[in-house]
Design brief:
The protein is of the alpha+beta class. The protein folds into two domains: 218 residues, Serine Threonine Protein Phosphatase 5, Tetratricopeptide repeat, CATH 1.25.40; 114 residues, Beta Barrel (OB fold (Dihydrolipoamide Acetyltransferase, E2P)). It contains 17 helices and five strands. A hairpin with a 2-residue loop joins strand 1 and strand 2. Helix 2 packs antiparallel against helix 3, helix 7 runs antiparallel to helix 8 and helix 8 runs parallel beside helix 10. The protein is rod-shaped.
Length: 457
Amino acid sequence: MQRYLKMAIILAVLLLAPSIAQRAVAQQAQQSQQPSYTLPEYNAEQAAAAEKDPQARIKKLDAFVSQFPNSTLMEYIYQFYYQTYYQLKEYSKAIEYADKLIALDKANLALRVQALQARVQLFGLAFDAKAPDAHDQLVKERDAALLGVKLFPDLEKVPNSKVTDEQVKEGTAFLEAAAGAADLQLKDYPAAIEAFKAALAINPKDAVTDYRLGLAYLATTPPQSLDGFWYLARAVDLKVPDDAKVKDYLRSRILAYEQPGCDSQVDPQLNELLQLAANSPDRPSTYTIPSHDDLTKISQASTIITVIADLSGGGDKAKMTWLAICGAEFPEVVGKIIDVQKSEGYVDFMVFTSANSDEMQAATMANMDVKVWTAPKPAGTTAPNANAAANLPPVAPQPDVVRLSKDDPIRFSGMLVGYDPSPFILHWDQVKVDPSVIPEKAGGAKKPMPRRTAPQR
């Protein structure tokens, strides 16, 4: 709310300008040969308005109320009160007297609307969420903002009004956003969403309201996550205060929503969301992000053969499949070694796998890169293209796999940690080769191609 105090005040509500009421009283006297107040009332009101010292002005206002409790000038007295208490930084007292003016149904419409707007602006300075009456304070704030929404358009109908249609729109958007902010704290999320949407319909580039709307969508039961993500992204695009923190929060919520095997997979989605949201105030119905349940269904139905088919096909299918199986462990994978690349501490076996044994036997190009550690895995070693295996305990090294060579069959379990789309290669880590396929000595007789028995996760 403090941010709103820096906004241009729609109707020139100058909280430190008692001269407004002085002019209004003078005009009332000029327009009526028989004013509704006495000369002593008028003189007392003018004396209070002319007083420069805030504390002395409060005393004169108190004296006026004590002497003339039923005066028709009370609307101006209440205005002086809330302006002066604002000057003294006694914000709760300022709100108290703004409410007294607002409650005067027969008061000057412009003065009531000014008081409503001032009250809403002051609320953020006075509100204490830990106060015993915090709930009641929020209800009053919401109701005041909504009353302002109702009364604001009537200002244009006042004779000789200089209020423009643009000012009415700006004022209405401000008050709708304030009502939404109160509803958000009251945990009335449907009402908050309605108010924020109304404000954004007038001013679609209000970053703070986009942010709050995103929070409201995420707080509903069940959460309306996709809409929540969209409006948080809009807020980041529009440079909401602390936009870097909001972006981090958005990333964490997407991560919790999807729970992919590889956290890094969220980053491309976040960047895409930010780009799309920058060009559209509302989420298109075609835009979606898969949930954890969606990914679980894909994962449970996947075999290494379907994974290769889906990923090599590209497009949305490949994106969804990789989100679901990145970091997945497969218990038994069989294939033919196409090439062996030995390095210090590990061996990369370039392997081809297929559902067809004859196709595997005839293969000359690999579709998998199987990394097997022959020495203890160095701490902090990360997997290619992903972070799936970075924080897992290392598998036991298998130095004897160096006895495997080109064209040998291989059976292993491991974790998918990355893939290259073209030429297509799946990357494996955390690999454990089945000892039964390893020759007993270098150059020993090749063992038969293992049969595929359990390709699923």
